[in-house]
Design goal:
The complex is a heterodimer. By secondary structure, chain A is largely without helices or strands. The N and C termini of chain A lie far apart (about 20 Å). By secondary structure, chain B is mainly alpha-helical. Helices cover about 70% and strands about 0% of the residues of chain B. Classes of the chains: A little secondary structure, B mainly alpha.
């Protein structure tokens, strides 16, 4: 599971 | 950022510009059906509005923020154009996909399968699931009319390429930075899969100068 700052993609 | 993702994002931009170009062109052909699904465009606007709730809270890069602002603004602008300015060219009789079901389905799934049960995370997850199926009203419309104008097929091709390149980007990121994101991957694979039939006809007909017609 990705960390909380995983939304780096658009 | 890698080349696959950059080109994917640029293809996404291209698709939006193709759409705007088509809408400008459609306006000059009075009374002609635009063959662009309003429902798909409204779903995309919903996708961007629910995904980028972190626009002001989470700064990644100037590129990231600029793109987010552009996607939100352009999707709202397109919805505005279709709803008000070019209303006469939009034919709801062809746009009959039941969008409320996919919105409901994406919302229910986002509440059950997510990384964290917070408002922002659930909204983000909802946007991922909704984007996966947002093209369905457009593809459904295409099936109904059985044919498409060349510019519409270019729009769909640009969107499909953007999705396909994201798949390559995830494979690349997995090997180079151990990047894993199951929710995005599965939704993205489903989304790209929806374009398979379209791609087949696009490559076998449109690129050879033939009209886009369903068999």
């Amino acid at each position: 599971q990705p960390d909380q700052n995983h939304h780096d993609e658009l | 950022m890698n080349l696959f993702r950059l080109v994917a994002d640029l293809m996404h931009l291209v698709s939006i510009f193709i759409l705007l170009l088509k809408m400008q062109k459609t306006r000059s052909v009075a009374g002609r059906c635009s063959r662009i699904s309003f429902k798909t465009q409204a779903l995309y606007a919903t996708v961007f509005l629910t995904r980028y709730t972190d626009l002001f809270a989470n700064f990644q890069s100037l590129y990231n923020t600029t793109m987010k602002v552009f996607f939100i603004a352009s999707s709202l602008y397109i919805v505005f154009l279709m709803k008000f300015k070019f209303k006469a060219t939009n034919d709801p009789r062809l746009d009959t996909f039941k969008a409320q079901y996919v919105v409901g389905g994406a919302a229910a799934l986002a509440l059950i399968v997510n990384y964290a049960f917070t408002v922002q995370e659930v909204l983000w997850t909802f946007s991922i699931y909704l984007e996966a199926v947002a093209i369905l009203p457009q593809l459904f419309m295409l099936t109904k009319t059985g044919e498409a104008e060349v510019i519409t097929t270019h729009y769909l091709f640009a969107l499909g390429t953007y999705r396909g390149l994201y798949l390559v980007n995830w494979i690349y990121r997995y090997w180079t930075e151990y990047y894993v994101d199951w929710i995005v991957w599965i939704a993205g694979a489903v989304q790209t899969g929806l374009y398979c039939d379209f791609f087949y006809i696009y490559f076998t007909k449109v690129l050879k100068g033939a009209k886009f017609e369903l068999p």
